[in-house]
Amino acid sequence: MSTLLTRRLALLAAEPHRAVLRGGLRGIERETLRVQPDGQLARTPHPAGWGSALTHPEITTDYAEALAEFITPAEGDIATTIDKLDGIHRYAYSKLGDELLWSQSMPAALPAEADIAIAWYGPSNLGMLKHVYRRGLAVRYGKAMQCIAGIHYNYSLDEALWRVLADNEPADRKLSRTAYQSEAYLALIRNFRRHSWLLMYLFGTSPALNSGFLRGKPHKLDTLSADTLYLPFATSLRMSDLGYQNDAQSGLRPHENSLDSYVATLTRAVNQPYEPYRKIGTKDANGEWIQLSTNVIQIENEYYSTIRPKRVIRTGERPIQALCNRGVQYVEVRCLDVDPFEPVGVSVTTGRFLDAFLLFCALDDSPAISELEGEVLARNFARTVKEGRRPGLTLTVDGREVPLRDAGEALLARIRPAAELLDGLRGDTQHTDALGQQAPKLADPERTPSAAVLRELARHGNSFAAFGLAQSEQHAAYFRAHPPTTEEAAYFDKLAQQSVAEQAEIDAAPRGSFDDYVKAYRASNLCPNQV
């Protein structure tokens, strides 16, 4: 254990400061495809009973019209967050008819690209901006890629905790409160980069996919059955090079050694032309918009990262501007697969482990990441997602090749004091228990969820489609057997009605040309002192 981690753990365990660990918030965004009863992609619009996808705070769409996104309020305890997520699912099913929510991260059987509808948010300039951005994603990555689902975990620590740590820094490391908090979150992100391979080994659940997903593109996957491709030792093909990767973003590596360098890199990316996109243009021959720009990325959110520094944005503000103006408020962990064995896609146990893991990342020493170290960390991650369960697999740790099992066990031992600190506040053992449930997975790869998925595939004729549909039906039965309470239904009915009314007001408001709106939006992405 590093000296800094030991000192910070002792500081936060001391009675005057223990309360700051009770703060902080946890939120979850769960993506899930709507499918027909036979497992084929739903062709219907966003369910009217759910409200407006443009303005509803908890039920929206991600990319495709059929790719729903459920967003919980931020809560102080992950068990409460997951309970809220369960409530969203139960309400959603009460308005879903005979459709199902797909249980996997990798999509169900998809129709031709032309038949995958892009999410629609109405005719307002705001709605069209969101829609055209997604048209651009279709051009750049293909529609099939935009039907992948995941779990996003939003995590913050109490601002009072950062003040406690800042007040105990050496005199030569004093920063303003905002600057200290931002740089501390960037330090958390650097440690996450170092250790996130462990999350993919422990919680990856996408070792296989529907063969039609690749649309005939060359690949190095093995054939499991007529409709299923896989890699025998993979943990998360979703997070492999089959996912959100292209030549334009291949050189885009935001420097997370400081907030300034991170913002500068993204600012350049949204303003740097990319020749293949320039050849496509922003409009087709009929003058219809097909992408917001011809730059490396259209907007900041197009940068697909396993973790992001975030700040709640204000009306008319862009993510980069929010970070520049007010600093980092929380981090968004984006690498978790949907757990097909959990009705809501994630368990409380996983959340407890993540809380201990992220607290450890926040408190441990986190030096700057050099370009060489960055390449090593990317290689460790890639090895784990594509062959994490391979016997004898090694990772590069401190310049040496170390068996993944040994590296994982050493990392769990380093995380344990953070779990114990959290449990000391609660007066129970939930975090250390969650940690304890991971060690057997390292000792025996067959106990990982990715191995469990392959066993279930075998029970379903080695068919990804059959397994996915069976799990989706099982989860649907659970939610339909537990409809929302009268109070829950009233709460979500009100949100739906308010969202529809809000969109109607937006749609009816006078508006200028969309071309001018896009021009103004693109011109607003610069922060002070950024090029």
From TrEMBL:
Domain Glutamate--cysteine ligase: 10-382
GO molecular function: ATP binding; glutamate-cysteine ligase activity; metal ion binding
GO biological process annotation, one example: glutathione biosynthetic process
Known pathway: Sulfur metabolism; glutathione biosynthesis; glutathione from L-cysteine and L-glutamate: step 1/2
Pfam families cross-referenced by the UniProt entry: Glu_cys_ligase
Keyword ATP-binding: yes
Name of the protein this chain belongs to: Glutamate--cysteine ligase
